[in-house]
Amino acid sequence: MSAPIPELTDRMRQIFGLVVEAYIDRGAPIGSKMLTGSVSLSPASIRGVMQDLEELGLLSHPHTSAGRMPTETGLRLFVDGIMQSALPNPADQATIERQIRDRPIEEALEAATATLSGLSACAGVVLTPKQELRLRQLSFVPLSPGRALAVLVGADGSVENRVVDLPAGTSTVALAEVGNYVSSRLAGLTLAQAETRLRAEITERREAIDAAAAELVASGLASWSRDAAQRPVLIVRGQANLIDEAAAADLERVRKLLEELEDRQEIAQLLEQAREAEGCRIFIGSENRMFALSGSSVIAAPYRGSDGAVVGVVGVIGPTRLNYARVVPMVDFTAQALTRWMA
Questions:
Q1: Lowest CB count within 10 Å: 7, 199, 241, 327, which one?
Q2: Cα-flanking dihedrals φ and ψ of residue 111, to 5°?
Q3: pLDDT (tens place) for every residue of the chain, 343 residues total
Q4: How far apart are the C-alpha atoms of 48 and 312, rounded to whole Å?
Q5: How many Å apart are CA 314 and CA 33, to the nearest integer?
Q6: Bridge partners for 30 per DSSP
Q7: In angstroms, what CA-CA distances link 109 with 135, 299, 316, 326?
Q8: pTM of this prediction exceeds 0.90
Q9: Contact 215, 174 (CB under 8 A)
Q10: Could you tell me if 113 and 235 are in contact, meaning their C-beta atoms sit under 8 angstroms apart?
Q11: Are 301 and 315 spatial neighbours (Cβ–Cβ below 8 Å)?
């Protein structure tokens, strides 16, 4: 466990801050001689303070001939108690605002993700607002006795196909009639609304549609609706930024991180944890299960819709040696910019 901030002397806090900042800048362990120009202490005195910080679990000593580097506990202490953050510089603010402004929502979110990735040299991620699919058309294509291909077309033009097993005795004519009914009478409704309306028709028998075929379609609409609600809508941009010169020394970690970025469901679940945060939520290394093996950090912040409710999360994923003082305000500013755009 790390010592609480009040237990660090001013000298320890100063040396610790310098080590972290130098490590973030260089990506390599920091020796005492490297700090002599930044503090009025001899290398021997600096080494003594570093040793004290190592005993507190804030610094680690990779091997005997190397300097020291912050542990994950140390990075957490730095981020929470020592780091001084401010607004992004005016040029970065202008870039973020310019890329988001006057675009449709989907393009604005894509642009925000790409811009964050470019400015932070990390992978940019955004969890988009969940939108319920609305129906435009439903049709069936017979495949074999007892099986058909259901083709669902959304109001946004999206198409989803599923093979369905048909109840015994269900005719292609009955399926066509139910498909026509859904397309003509339920178009514009969400899947959940269409299911409710169709079941009401089955119960009240107000429409001359085959009950078995209608029940099959209603169950299918319910299944589609559940799947859509659980499916993360996630945009990831800039994975190539994670492969830099510093990464060459640890290709296995980078390979693991790139594999982790392929698991959209896991990333979405992690970002969901930032929905209730007032500002940025920061996950460092093994603090989150997903990126524990690659030793990566995630900085994420929620953004809100016109009603003030949280609708999504934006952030970056990168190595633990992120420039937190620069990237944290950048992520927070992007979330605020998206909130202003959506107001």
A1: 7
A2: -65, -40
A3: 444 555 789 999 999 999 999 999 888 889 999 998 888 899 899 999 999 999 999 999 887 667 899 999 999 999 998 888 788 999 999 999 999 988 888 889 999 999 999 999 999 999 887 667 788 998 888 888 888 888 888 887 778 888 888 888 788 888 888 888 889 888 888 888 888 888 887 777 665 677 777 788 888 888 877 776 666 578 889 888 777 555 556 677 777 777 777 777 788 888 889 988 888 999 998 888 888 777 789 999 999 988 888 889 999 998 888 899 999 999 999 999 999 988 7
A4: 47
A5: 39
A6: 68
A7: 24, 17, 13, 21
A8: no
A9: no
A10: yes
A11: yes
Q: Which residue has the tokens 């017979």?
A: 142
Would you state the structure tokens that stand for residue 180, as one six-digit string?
A: 């026509």
| Assigned token pair, 77 | 């202490």
The Cα-based distances of 189 to 133, 135, 200 in angstroms read: 8, 6, 15
Q: Are 125 and 115 in contact (CB under 8 A)?
A: no
